[in-house]
Amino acid sequence: MEKALYDQSHGYYSGKPRRIGRTGDFYTAVSVGPLYGKLIGQQAVRLWEAAGKPGRWVLAEQAAHDGQLMADILSEIQVGCGELAALLEVVLIEPQVGYREVQGDTLRDVWRGEVKWIDGVGELEGTDGLLVCNELLDAFAVRRVVKGEGQWMECGVALEGDGASIFWEDRAIRDEELRAEVERLPEDLPEGFVTEVQVAVKGWVDQLGRSGFQGAVWLADYGLDAEEYWSLERPEGTLRRYWEHRMDDRVLEDLGNSDLTCHVNFTVVHEAATAAGFRVTAYEDQGRFLTRLAAPWLRSLEGKVPMGEVGALLRQFQSLTHPGIMGRSFRVMLLERVAGL
Ligand SMILES: C[S@@+](CC[C@H](N)C(=O)[O-])C[C@H]1O[C@@H](n2cnc3c(N)ncnc32)[C@H](O)[C@@H]1O
Questions:
Q1: CATH number of domain containing 21
Q2: CB-based burial label for 318 (10 Å; 0-12, 13-18, 19+)
Q3: Are residues 115 and 154 in the same domain?
């Protein structure tokens, strides 16, 4: 999965960011339109004010892709709170050079201030602020395991004939990290049950904790609680591939040309975040979370903004919050640093 997504030459996410949205392989909350970024921008202002308007405040994003979400957030902050815009430090966590270039081009149109790029969350400094991650964690490589006769095995990927044939191959679990995670799986799962273990997600939260970042973290992704994740209704796990708005579980086919992704196990994130010095201040379906955030503001626009513009915002609001579109399968989790840690 790591190679299929991030190999420098052949990975799905290598080179320059691909299109997301109607002409791409899938939609995200960002590709729905600028409303999502507007709402995060408003949340950022609220957090900054609640923290007592600190003089140093970082707005960071990881998985910024082509920079569109950061552009939408910054536009909102500049219109809504010039005081914060004047001191804001913008940081993009992006290891890929090709992505950095495109992000820089997108932001140049809306942001006159500096943009700093870093490789990973470990380099975030101990400042206050907000880190935004939309659909980051579902893009991390996972380990896939299957319940064999009485014990868990890792689903390895094997090649034959110089790659002409590629197939799953069950292997004994050798490393301690995976073994420890597998020991947490419910004992009564039946033989043949397949699931994913999100070792990389846990590692990311640990690294964030160690960085000393003092701010809040906005995590939005499609995901489940552990109980739902390991339910008998999901005997094949959640690993899927997406291409041209189609989706299936034949994840070893056409490697490098389709997105591979997995539901986030939010219980794992919650536990890792607590251990890393954060508390979870919100965790909800995206629909309910954004409705609470957006409703008063949308109502206040009536009469002030041209009807056509309100109509476009309402259509975006519906896509983001409708249970049948993105409202239920996506969840938002907000983390805040426990003071003094
Ligand atoms: C599903 S896309 C989401 C893009 C964008 N956030 C959105 O919602 O439209 C997943 C993104 O995660 C990025 N990504 C994965 N691992 C990353 C890492 N370690 N650092 C920065 N970005 C990463 C990929 O490059 C890709 O842009």
A1: 3.40.50.12710
A2: middle
A3: no
- Ligand 1 within 6 A of CB of 251: no
Q: Which pLDDT tens digit goes with each residue over 279-308?
A: 999 999 999 999 999 988 887 887 888 877
Tell me, using a 6 A CB cutoff, whether residue 63 lines ligand 1. yes
Selection from 246, 251, 286, 248 nearest residue 266 by Cα: 286
Instruction: Return d(Cα 114, Cα 40) in angstroms, integer.
Output: 20
The verdict on 65 and 161 lying in the same domain is no
Which protein residue's CA is at the shortest distance from atom 11 of ligand 1?
A: 63
Q: What is the mean pLDDT of the chain?
A: 95
* Same structural domain, 275 and 174: no
Q: State if residue 152 touches ligand 1 by the CB under 6 angstroms criterion.
A: no
pLDDT in tens, 228-249: 999 999 999 999 999 999 999 9
Domain interval for residue 55:
2-141+199-230+259-335
Is the CB of 260 within 6 Å of ligand 1?
no
Ligand 1 pocket, 219 CB below 6 A?
Answer: no
Residues 100 and 153 in one domain: no
Task: Give pLDDT, residue 164.
Answer: 82
- Element spanning 319, H or E: helix 307-321
Ligand 1, atom 14, lies closest to the CA of 63
